Amino acid sequence: MAATRTIGMRLTWIARMLRTRFDARARSIGLTRAQWRMIVTIHLAEGATQKHLAQQLEISSVTAGRILDRLVAVGCVERRADPVDRRANRVYLTSVAVPLMEVLGALGAEEEQLMTRGLSPEEIATFSALLQRVVENIQAGPALEAADDEDDFEKTL
């Protein structure tokens, strides 16, 4: 039983290390964590509303709006009126963001290579399949109210 409790802690530490490393590398190209997360989320949901993007990122709509304002100001993102709902805007990446996506993709690939160094292709496939099963197990569990901010957990320690 003790071994399974450490799996969650290790996953937490791994996630933190990956974020920290990627953040530092993204900062080297002038992006904050919030900005690169928003750019990637828009890329995956091109034409989404600000509200949808905020939900995907698990941040408030106001916070998403501020991040989007900064990205619009530097020309990476544009808001377009929703043809159906006059109150909503749809968010799209511009051609300015294309090279950023390429750099972010390359950084991600480099970090993944570092993370899986020394693992065979078969081990990587097995590891990926096991992680997917863990994701499915968690998703199949009872729904819980989400925390507003992952940093709230750190404040309670």
TrEMBL record:
<keyword id="KW-0238">DNA-binding</keyword>
<dbReference type="GO" id="GO:0003677">
    <property type="term" value="F:DNA binding"/>
</dbReference>
<dbReference type="InterPro" id="IPR000835">
    <property type="entry name" value="HTH_MarR-typ"/>
</dbReference>
<keyword id="KW-0804">Transcription</keyword>
<protein>
    <submittedName>
        <fullName>MarR family transcriptional regulator</fullName>
    </submittedName>
</protein>
<feature type="domain" description="HTH marR-type">
    <location>
        <begin position="4"/>
        <end position="136"/>
    </location>
</feature>
<dbReference type="GO" id="GO:0003700">
    <property type="term" value="F:DNA-binding transcription factor activity"/>
</dbReference>
<dbReference type="InterPro" id="IPR036388">
    <property type="entry name" value="WH-like_DNA-bd_sf"/>
</dbReference>
<keyword id="KW-0805">Transcription regulation</keyword>
<dbReference type="InterPro" id="IPR036390">
    <property type="entry name" value="WH_DNA-bd_sf"/>
</dbReference>
<dbReference type="Pfam" id="PF12802">
    <property type="entry name" value="MarR_2"/>
</dbReference>
